[in-house]
Amino acid sequence: MSAQPSGETATQQTTNVTTGERDVAPTITHLPCGVGDVSTGLLCALISMGAAAVGWWISGAAVALPLALVGGAALAAAIEDHRVGRIPNTVVLTGIVIVTCAWGIVATLDNRTMGALAVDVLAGVVLGGAPAVFLVWLVAPRLIGGGDWKLLVVLGAMVGFLAPAAATVIPLVAFGTATVIAVARRRREIRLGPFLATGYVVAVLAAVAEPELFGSWPVGSAVG
Question: Which of 26, 129, 142, 180 could form a disulfide with 171 if both were Cys (CB 3.0 to 4.6 A apart)?
Fold first, then answer.
């Protein structure tokens, strides 16, 4: 069995042995990953922008803006992974751009030093488990998708802006929940995108709810 190439139109024709006429099966158009999901991307962007505005207004901290925007990228990645089993590089690159821009924005508006922020971001990536997952992907790529560790880099880095220690929540929630569901459904393969996005949301909420536990800055002090 051969797969239909992405972006091409699949048309099947069969011959009716009674009449000798050719029956044309319905035409199915296969679009490459991400091309047919403009509305999904716009929806995720609108949701994240709304959350960013509300978060910034409530907390008074500029870090709420990139946190929400990366959340929108994580949502888009989760939807794509659930639908087609692949996290597009465009979504990951969008997250990287947001994190990069956040470095200067948060440093300026939240009165934080860029050097200290760089350390927090790096700590978030490491504590979020991205290096470990990357090594697993290198050794056994059938066990983990390339998009999974790339997305984890972005999510861990962004949580690092808020509380590097909270980044540990992402893999705990993601892999823990995915394992439980895989065992319950007796499945050997499961798509991690939705679980990584969930882990990100839980990590951010945990950092905001327990600022003393995770050493969150500055949302915890702003809310309190």
Answer: 129
